[in-house]
Amino acid sequence: MSKRYFIVDDDPDIVALVQDILEEAGHTVMSSQSSVEALKRIASEKPDVVLADIMLPEMDGFQLCKRIKDNPTLQDVRVVMLSAKAYEYDRAYARKMGADGYISKPFLPDALVAQLDGILSGAMTLTYWGVRGTLPVSGQGSLRYGGNTSCVSIEVPNKPLIIFDAGSGIKYLGDHIFATAKGAGKKRVSAKLFISHPHWDHINAFPFFGPMYVPGNEFEVLGARHGDTTMRELISAQMDGIYFPITIREFGSRVYFRDLGEETIEIDGITVRTMLLNHPGNCLGYRVELGGKSVCYITDNELFLPDHPAYSAAYEDRLADFCRGTDVLITDTTYTDAEYATKIEWGHSCVSQVAALAHKAEVKKLHLFHHDPDQDDDAIDAKLVAVRAALNALGSQVECEAPAERDQVKL
Questions:
Q1: What is the pLDDT of residues 69-87, one digit of tens each?
Q2: Confidence at residue 242, expressed as pLDDT on a 0 to 100 scale
Q3: Do 90 and 60 touch, CB atoms closer than 8 A?
Q4: What confidence tier does 63 reach under pLDDT thresholds 50, 70, 90?
Q5: What pTM did the predictor assign?
Q6: Which helix (H) or strand (E) holds 317?
Q7: What domains does the chain contain, in order, with CATH numbers?
Q8: Which phi and psi angles does 162 have, rounded to 5°?
Q9: CA angle, corner 198, sides to 192 and 204, nearest 5?
Q10: What is the DSSP string of 238-282?
Q11: Which element (helix H / strand E) includes 7?
């Protein structure tokens, strides 16, 4: 869709370059090299988007952004900073002033329009890096779905990267981050890593997440403490010298930890809610919400059959309410019903109960996750067929998929 852009930059070459790129993409462009003049014209022209440099004479880009955002007649105007200042402080301060996005110079001309579209759409990009449980698998039977253990990311333009779990898939997320940062000229990465629980398949590649060794990057690791053992202690224990030759003290980036219970936290406008799940030890499920969109990450979790003494209708009601109406429910579907009969109280769920939960919670899409290592690709296909059949029997409108490694969903 064509938009009306206003460029504010005191470098005429940058103005000319950006104007050419945007006009070629079908947009209307206005510009000014004076921030004071620009503010007057923006008030009268009311463009859709302002692209503003930070280091401007008269009034800097932060001040310009704040003045635009404080003007009630300009509430629909989006502001994106376009600056050579690559410091995390400036990005954070731009967000504080109300900026809708931040693009660093030098930028790739061929990528600028796509970057702007991503920022302005506010789209969530959900990516799977590992979909199996218990331990990684290899061989002919894991070529389609992949063999790595739990790791999922959510990317939102101009927000910290959100990562769920650090199973073996996180190594390949790290490779992707390096490749993307190099291609886009980015120098720093900021992310929130949410650990569901510290069983090996959810943390075993934490030491191999390359971006943590890069100075200037910043990672917060969040998850449930176990009694007196904090999240920091849980994660660092596997990197003790006995088990691994590198300790967390040797990370080049800033890595810090936060203990979570059942609570709600805010991360740069993203709401993250947590819920304790039915699994040995403390295990957290997460719900991420932004702009009316949501994703629920529910693994590991056992939904007992109704005839089992441990079955709790109250727990299932609470979990259904937690997932209510979500755009995507990613949930533990480790077993078929036949397999589950011999693995009750192992902490994982089966086909029929997962279908019942998704239907009860009225989710839009159900994504099957945390597959048993003894299941090959054909077995996962069959499990998908079984879940769809169970949903159909319930008269459910839920769409069901079994994502593979590298699959992406845009919300």
A1: 999 999 999 999 999 987 7
A2: 82
A3: no
A4: very high
A5: 0.82
A6: helix 313-323
A7: 4-121 (3.40.50.2300), 125-410 (3.60.15.10)
A8: -105, 130
A9: 85
A10: TTSTTT-S--GGG-SSEEEEEEE-S-EEEETTEEEEEEE-SSSS-
A11: strand 4-8
